[in-house]
Structure formats: structure tokens, C-alpha cells
Design goal:
The chain has 17 helices and 13 strands. It has about 450 residues and is of the alpha/beta class. Strands 1-4-5-13 form a 4-stranded mixed β-sheet, sandwiched between helices. Strands 6-9-11-7 form a 4-stranded antiparallel β-sheet, with helices on both faces. A 3-stranded antiparallel β-sheet has the order 10-8-12. The chain is globular and about 65 Å long.
Length: about 450
């Protein structure tokens, strides 16, 4: 088989056979399919798409390019379920959801990623906790999941390695936004984690990479179809990303908000709605509740009990962080030297927020990467004070910027003032959960 003939076939809009897809994926890992050929293949798929069968085969080949976890030896007394989010600004849901659903009896091995472009990454957030090991060895990872109920860690080198290479080529060749390639990329990693169930949170809006609802619907349906085909019970939610999720954006700030949420000290209502909705879907795919309403009730009860905070603390400690993190988190989390408010430029209603620009502000403050090798400043970011639809007075703080330098502070104040649009009339009420595709 010749790589160029397979690329030509896809370029001309023909469906590929299993052997051809498998040849490409093994070629990625053994180096016989060059990066140039991979880039051309990705562009051919971007324009010509893939059938459900092709996408399913691609997913399976990528999943089998590395190790597939098997939990059966561990004698777990509950189902193994995970959640995946396509990413957004201020999306710290994984940090609160993992311990809450663990407290409900689900085992959650959560393989998470780093910040990408304007969106934050769960691993970067967790690394603001001193000592937290995002890349434990396999034995520690499995032990933590068994003993604590959840472990949020980074992708290991042996989990879907073909995706790692393919993704890095797509990232620099404008081929990320392809529904079959996104589906195979996300699911190859998730299915390699040996799950019984999966819930996908597809974000849409001006802070998501699927900025149009139509694209989000296509991604959600595609993941739903392929994942259920593999026998992994899967549901998808489409949720709003037209404003930051929760109060804070920035690594340590988001961990602080997580602790406040889990202990009940401070719960942003929109964030709470998304956490509970995802928890209810996870309970349903896990078979632990019969209806979504029962799942909402159970998740609310557990979240009010504070058991999530206790489990979060045990996970942090098991993975190398402080044993008293929940009680003393302010001592442990880094704080930026400068904290200043962003005043509203006029009186009126917040009618739109350029969420992507809010995410990029955190990158400019040093809280995200401009290139993969950059190190990040975990302390910086912003604490928002107002949400879409709120009425503000001129001079009232829209947010507080946490910055390292005066220069970065002043640039951030300017960007945030431009990002928050203030008008005389209120906008339509914001909706957090836009659509659901439930496993039946
Ligand atoms: N997240 C992934 O893991 N892969 C994609 O292709 C897009 C988002």
C-alpha cells in the first residue's frame, strides 16, 4: 500500500477501507507515514469528511495504537465512568465533578489535558497545588482510583500515542475543526481508559472552539454514535460558553474556586447547574439512577454533604499534594503580587462578553502558553464580578485582575473593558444547558 494513494483516494472523496486506515495509523507510530503525508491526509479528511464506519475504524485503530486499560483485575465495586469537555474559559468542572461522582459510587479515572489556545487545561490548574503529581506511575494511578474513587491525571505516553502525533500535526495545519478527526481524537483516549460509560460536554459559544451550535451538535452526535457503537454507554450535553464558566479564570484562582465550591463556601449558580447536570448524566450512564431527575437529586445531596471536598483532599494527598489542602489551601496556592479591579466604563447591562478574549487575557498575563514549551505562572488570572445580563454602574468592578507586572495589569484592564459590552437594554436570559443527547 502506498500512503500517497490512500491520501489521493480520500482527497477524491472515496471511503477508505479498514486496511487503509489501519495502515495510516500504524504508519504514524512506526514512522512510515511522514508528517507531511499526515498533514495532507488530515486536510483531505477536513474537506471530504468520513462516514460513521470510517470514523469508527479510525477511532479503534488510534485507541489500539497504545495500551488499553482494563479495570477487571482491581475488583472495583462500581462502574468506571468519565467525562470529557471540549474545553472553554473558566471550565473547572472536572475538578469538582470527579470527587462528587466518586462520592456517588462511580470510579473516575480522568485523563485530562493542558491549556490549548485561549482555553484553560485541567492539568495546569492541578499543578498549582504544590506536590500534585499529574503523571504518576500506573500503579499509583490505579491505586488512587481504587482507594479514593477518582484520579485526575495527564495522558500517559502509552495511551493512544497515535493521537498525540496526529493532534500535533493537526494543530499546526488548520485541521483541528473536523468532526470525524475530533471524534476519533477524543474517543481514542477515552476508550483506551477502559470505561463503562462516558459523558461528553460539548461547549458552544464565543469562548469554545465549536463557536456555532451547528458544529457542536455535529460533534456531540458523532461522539455519541461512535462511543455507543463500542458498547460504552454515552450521553452528550451541549453547554454554553458565551461567558466564562464560574467566577474565576486562571489556574490557582480556579482551584480556589473549586475548594470554595466543594466546601459550599461559594457556589456560582451557572457552574453549579453544569456540574449537577453532568453528574446526573454520569449517574444515568453508570446505571446508578433510573432517571435524570433522580441523578440531579443524588448529585445535589452529595454536593451539599461536603463529601466531595473530603474526596478531593484525599485525591490531592494520594497524588503527592498536601494532606491538609482543603483546610489550608490559601497557604498553598500561589498568589499574584498585584490585584486590581477593572472598572465598568459606563452604566448599563452586560449584553455580551468576548469570552475568547477573556481566555487570551489570562494567556497574556502568563497563565497560559504561547508555545508548547512555555512555562506558566499559576497565580495570575481574573476573578469576574459580573455575568451576562447583570446591570452595572459606571466605575463598578467588572473583574479583579491578578497580575505579575504593572504592564501586564494595564494591558489586561484594557482588554477586559473592551471584552465586556455594556448596553442600555438587557439581553435575552442566558441558558447554561443548551441540548442533551441521552443514552437510552
Ligand atoms: N480535544 C481533543 O482531544 N482532540 C481534538 O481533536 C479536539 C479537542
Amino acid at each position: 500500500m502506498l500512503p500517497q494513494e490512500i491520501i489521493r483516494k480520500k482527497r477524491n472523496g472515496q471511503a477508505l477501507h479498514e486496511k487503509e486506515i489501519s495502515f495510516i495509523i500504524s504508519g504514524i507510530t512506526d514512522g512510515t507515514f511522514s508528517e507531511n503525508q499526515l498533514a495532507a491526509f488530515a486536510m483531505a479528511v477536513y474537506f471530504q469528511g468520513m462516514s460513521l464506519d470510517e470514523c469508527t475504524i479510525l477511532t479503534e485503530c488510534m485507541m489500539r495504537s497504545g495500551r488499553v486499560l482494563d479495570w477487571s483485575d482491581l475488583d472495583l465495586n462500581g462502574p468506571v465512568v468519565d467525562k470529557h469537555s471540549t474545553g472553554g474559559v473558566g471550565d473547572k468542572v472536572s475538578l469538582m465533578l470527579a470527587p462528587i461522582i466518586a462520592a456517588c459510587g462511580i470510579y473516575n479515572p480522568m485523563i485530562s489535558g493542558r491549556g490549548l489556545g485561549h482555553t484553560g487545561g485541567t492539568l495546569d490548574k492541578l499543578e498549582s497545588i504544590p506536590g500534585y503529581n499529574t503523571h504518576p506511575d500506573n500503579a499509583l494511578f490505579l491505586r488512587t482510583v481504587k482507594d479514593v474513587g477518582c484520579a485526575v491525571i495527564g495522558q500517559t505516553a502509552d495511551l493512544a500515542p497515535a493521537d498525540k502525533i496526529f493532534y500535533s500535526v493537526r494543530d499546526v495545519t488548520a485541521t483541528i475543526e473536523s468532526v470525524p478527526l475530533i471524534t476519533a481524537s477524543i474517543l481514542s483516549k477515552k476508550l483506551a481508559a477502559g470505561l463503562d460509560g462516558l459523558v461528553v460536554d460539548v461547549k458552544t459559544g464565543n469562548g469554545a472552539f465549536a463557536d456555532q451550535l451547528d458544529m457542536a451538535e455535529k460533534i456531540a452526535n458523532s461522539i455519541f454514535d461512535v462511543s455507543n457503537h463500542f458498547g460504552v454507554k454515552t450521553s452528550a450535553l451541549i453547554t454554553d460558553m458565551n461567558q466564562p464558566l464560574g467566577r474565576t479564570v486562571g489556574n490557582a484562582l480556579e482551584v480556589r474556586e473549586t475548594v470554595d465550591y466543594l466546601t459550599g463556601a461559594d457556589r456560582d449558580p451557572r457552574l453549579h447547574e453544569v456540574v449537577i447536570a453532568l453528574a446526573a448524566e454520569m449517574l444515568a450512564v453508570a446505571g446508578l439512577t433510573k432517571t435524570i431527575e433522580q441523578g440531579v437529586e443524588k448529585a445535589n445531596e452529595v454536593s451539599a454533604s461536603g463529601r466531595g471536598a473530603e474526596i478531593f483532599n484525599r485525591m490531592v494527598s494520594a497524588l503527592g499534594g498536601p494532606a491538609d489542602f482543603i483546610e489550608n489551601y490559601n497557604q498553598y496556592l500561589p498568589q499574584a503580587p498585584i490585584v486590581k479591579p477593572v472598572p465598568a466604563s459606563k452604566t448599563g447591562y452586560i449584553t455580551s462578553i468576548d469570552t475568547r478574549s477573556v481566555g487570551l487575557t489570562v494567556v497574556e498575563l502568563g497563565g497560559g502558553r504561547k508555545k508548547v514549551t512555555d512555562s506558566i505562572d499559576h497565580s495570575v488570572g481574573l476573578d469576574t464580578h459580573v455575568a451576562l445580563g447583570e446591570n452595572v454602574k459606571a466605575g463598578q468592578p467588572l473583574a479583579e485582575i491578578h497580575a505579575r507586572t504593572e504592564e501586564q495589569l494595564n494591558a489586561a484592564i484594557q482588554t477586559i473593558q473592551n471584552a465586556y459590552i455594556i448596553s442600555e437594554s438587557p439581553p435575552d436570559p442566558a441558558v447554561s444547558i443548551i441540548d442533551r443527547i441521552n443514552y437510552k
